[in-house]
Each structure stands twice: as structure tokens, then as C-alpha cells.
User: What shape does this take?
Amino acid sequence: MPSVPLTGIPALIAAVLGLGCVFVVLSQASRSRVVRTIVLALALGAVAAGGALGMREEHTASVLGGRLFLVGVSSAVLAVGYLLHQLTAAERALIGAFSDSGRFERESELLAARNAVLQTQLEQSQAQLAQTAISGSAAILDPSDDGTDVRVLEDRAEDAEQAARRSSAIGDEIVDAVVTLERKSMRVVRHNAALCRLLGRSRGELQGARLVDVLGTNESVVRAFDIDQMAHAGSSVVVAITRPDGAQIEAELRIGTAGDGQDRQLIAVLRDVTESSEQARKLCAVEEQVRVLEAEAAAHQCAATTPAAAPADARDAATSESGPTQSDSSSQRVHASIDALIDREFAWVSETLPSDADVAHERSVEAIAHDLRVPLTSIRSFAEILLEHDDVEADERVEFLQIIQKESRRLTRMVNDLLDVRRIKSGVGELDLEDMDLRDLVRDGLNSLNGLALSRGVSFEGTWDGEVRTVRGDRDRLHRVVANLLSNAVKFSPEGGAVEVILREGEEAGSVRLGVRDHGPGIAEEDQGVVFERFSRGADGPENVSGTGLGLSICREIVEIHGARIWPESRPQSGATLWVEFPPPERVNATPAHAVTADCA
Amino acid sequence: MSQRVLVVDDEPFILRSLSFVLERAGYEVLQARDGDEALEALRDHRPQVCLLDVMMPRRSGFEVCEIVKGDPDLRDTYVVMLTAKGQDAARERGVQAGCDEYLTKPFSPSLIVEKVRAAFGAAERLAASATTAEES
Assistant: This one.
């Protein structure tokens, strides 16, 4: 049978090709099971048909079989290519971008894919628009899209176009610098382009370099960080970096870990905070105090005070905490100024809270006082240690100053968050209402997480259908709600855990429900009423979560002024879901219900 | 006999500062991050003095203090409660729990060293005679 070897070879090649395609489809189009199955069946069908014909003994039939086979496989390849082009980028991005093993590429992949999603949306909107124009009626419009007309669709198409442009701009200048390091040597294994830009160095210079060298920072500063502790807690430090051109920048450094044992790697995320927002730049009084302290410390050392005098002064100052001190020893002045600072904070706190102080508000004051005093205690303690001990080693000195800086920042965040709460409360009448698709808010919320999810190795899963979920509200404030819920879930997730985002119709027609589920420690039943209280954090929360405990409190304020409601659902040890139910858009109007009370949901 | 102090706080920086000044003052310092760790350290290492934060995860400082003071083996431990809560109610609660001293945050580290020094005096007196009341 001479014909068999002739047709056998192309048959074999084609079979390999066909199977290759099947594997590509299996590995890439991970979400759409139906499509995957169809493609799989097509490809296998082609292989089987071709194979069967190709193996037939008659010469002519074999040739025919080989040809048929090739045609079948080619069309399978085309189909697969088309499907990959249409689906995988978008799907992988939105839902699976954080969950596959290529941690490092996720950020850029996400951005590229988001772009694809927006493009698809744009195409959909345009198609819908065209259809509408042809039929000349609103009948084909999505019935769930209350009150949609041609103009709305036009607007949406424009929005999508704008958003697509915006997101490609983001893709060009990806947010954070990400670098993986070999754990032991702290040498750079991989990094993204943003790191080159941040440090002002080329790829060649960075590859294989030690972290300390590329940061151009003092070695003792880097050693002072407890890398493992940082990785475990997901906390961040700010490092001063000297670029090769001599420019000084400040970057926020977060550390995550990947792999185990010998292969363990660190993932560092660096963000330039030199030119940071106004909030960060107008460092509140606390940080200025720290600078005063450092100056005082220097002056103190120059003045060559006798070692015995300082502790005695400190003791005096400490025992007369309530009133201003008379002595002018530098140590005492520092204590007095810190005390004055505390007094100011408290005056501010009591001013912030509504005057009709009931029991709940008194509890809030107590809680706020407690939480403000924690960082203040650290700041004060380390300032005093630096003042009183002239022989503190250089390493420890740096460490203590870092702590003072870090705790000042934490205090600043708390104060800013509290101010936000007040702003939200007082600005009830100033909601800038518009209708929006909740799915867009979720996407924006995912964006705003940046390195946080990455540094903790947390992935996202989405559960929603193609329906547009229209809610009415103030875009900036609702964005805050979604972003807070997502970052809250990330913070309370175990390292490498998954966060699930659920979108569905609420109980009432036209209402929309958003759920964010983590697999963290959950919320104990007795705590479920207080998770939205200011500064409250679950007793079993991860150690040293870098939040202020105000995020959910802010969420509740915003949700309530929108006439929506928010509530937790949890069993201890099995994660928690925070639900928000938005009322039908037509029920939200410019003067929202004044049912803004201190009651718990 | 080495002079051993247990410092209990869920805030790592506060642990760090207290340990630093106490070690400098010549004490052997043990650390615990929550109530359970504290009880374990108390039973295993028998520190004479314990600086105890009130607001901690899982088991509050009050609870730890009550357990310590109710345990015949541990009740001679000199307990100093540390908390940001300055309210009278909290102070009363501390006294009820049987603490020997009560300090509010923010505190001065050198004041803490002084209190610990005084506490060792008191602890020795307590150990010498179980019936001796604390002298003011």
C-alpha cells in the first residue's frame, strides 16, 4: 500500500496542528465553557474525519482524505484564531488577570485587556446605535435599560471611545514600578519599564543588580526594614532614592512574596511619591512636629546637657501631662508641644462630631481618641528615646526616625479620613447625580487598587452577566465606596486569596446589588453591627493592616446619602461579604432622604 | 535573680520602644502581641512585672489581668495596665481586674522605666509577704 506513507505524513502534521490548537484554546479561553466546547469539538472532528479518510486504503480516497483533512484543520485554526482575538484578552483581563501564575505581567496585561474590553464595548454600542437608527424605534433597546434612547446610546459610544483612549494612555505609562528580587541576594530578577523610568536607569543596568545599588540609597536604611515583616503585613515604607543624575526622589515601597523555600522571591512595588497629591504634600502639623523634634534633637546634643538632667526633665514633663510646662529644657518643650498637639487633635475631633452627642457619638469619640493616641504614643516614645540616648546606634537611629515618619503618616491618613467623613456628612445636598453602569465603577475600583492586590498576591473573580447595571449617584463618591470595599477585601484576604465581586439584580425591580466577598477571617457575629463604625477593625484582622479603620465608615455614609443600604454577611473563619443595594435610579433624586442617622444597618 | 519584664501590646512599635528603654535599663525583656501569648509567657517565664495593654485582639488586658490575679501561681506578678483609654470607667475596670498600676497613652518611656523600677521594689515586697499591701 504505497499511498499510506504519502498521506500519512501530512495527516500526522495536521493532526499535531489540530491538537496544538485544542491545547491553545484550553489554556487561553478559560472562562467561556460553551465556546470552548464547540471549538474543541470542531477541531477534534476535523482531526477524526481527516484521519479516517487519510487512512483509507484506496489511493484516490487517501489523497482526497488528506486534502479534506487539511481543509478541516485550517478552518479549525481560523476559528480558534478568531475566537482568541475576540474573547480571551477581554475575559482574561477582567476576571482572570490576577489569578494566573504570571504574577509579574499582570498589571500590563490588565491594562491592555481593559483596553480591549472598552473597544468591544465601543463596538457593541456603535452596533446598537446603527441598529437603532435603521429600525427607527426603541423597541430593540435593552428593556432593562430604563429610559434609554438614541442619544444615551450615542453618549455611551462617545464615553466608551473616550475611555478607550484614556486607558491606552494609562497603558503607556503604567502606574507602579514592579520588580521581583531573589530573596537571599536581593538581586533583581525581573522588572517592568516603569522601574527604569522611576530610577532613571536602563534595563541592562537593573538586571541582576542589588536592590540597594539600584535604589542609590543608604545601605543601612534598607537593612533597617524588616523585609519579612513587611511582606507579611503588606505594609509600606517610603524610601529616599538618589538617581544617577543626582535627582532625589521618594518612593513608597511595598513587598510581597512568591514561591517557597529555595526559590522564594520577593515582589517589590515602588511608587513615586515625590510629587504626590496635595493631601500628602501639605503634611499636617504632626509631620512638621517631627521635623521640629529632629532639629531639637540636634540642638540637644550640641548643648551637651548632662545625661542625668534629661530624664529628670522628661519625668517632670510626663507627670504634668495635662498642663503646659514652664521649664525651657528642650526635652520638656518637645513634650509640651506634643501635648499641645494632642489637645489640638482632640479639640478638632470634638468639633468634627455632631454636637447632639448621644451615646454612640461618645463611643466614637472614645474610639477616635484611642486610635489617634496609638501612633502618637509611638511618635512620642521614639522622639524621647532619640533625645535622651546620645549613644543610639546609627542603624537604630534610622529605624526610629522611620517609625516616627511612618506613624506620622498614619496619623495624617486618619485625620484626612475623618475630614472626609465630615465632608461627606455635611455635603449631603451637593450630590452630583448621574446614571452610570455599576460595572464601570467596579472596573475603576480595580484600577485604583494598583499594587495593593499584587503585593498581597490576591486575585479577583467576577460574577456577573452581560446586563447593564444602572445606578444613579455621585460618581466620585460611589467610586470611593467601590474602591474602599475592594481594598478592604484585599486587606483582609489571606495572602494569595481570591476576592469575588458579585453584581446582580436586587430584590426590588430596577435595584442593583453589589457584593464583595473575601476569604479572610470573617466578621464575628457580635462585630457585625460595628464594622461600619469609625476606626473599627475586626479583632482577628491581619496584623498591622495599613488602613485607618475608617474606610467602611465612609462607605456607609456615602451609601446612606444615596438612599442605598450596606450590610455585612459572614460566618467567622469563612470570609465575609459586604453587600450594597442601590435603589432603582428613578428613586434617587437631588434631595436624598434625610434618613442619615447613626443607626447601624 | 534576673529581673524579668513582660511587655504586652498589639502595636509592634510600642513593643519596640518599651523593650528598647527597658533593656537599656538592664532588664530582661519578654514580648507578647496578644492576651494568649501573654499568658503563655507568664506561665513559662514567670516575669516579676508585666506591662499590659488593654485593647488587644482576642483577649483584652482586663481579662488577662483577671486570670493572672486569680491564679495562685501568677498573682504576685506586678501588673501595670497601659491603655489609650483614660476614662474613669476603664480605670475602675482595671482596678476591679486587680491591676497594680494604671498608665494612659501616650506615655513617656522614661516614666515607664521609673514605674518598672518601683514595681520591682513592690514586687519584692509582695513576694516577701503575701499579705503586704501596696505602699503608696
Notes: Residues 4-128 of chain B form a domain with the Rossmann fold fold (CATH 3.40.50.2300). Chain B touches chain A through 28 residues (CB under 8 Å).
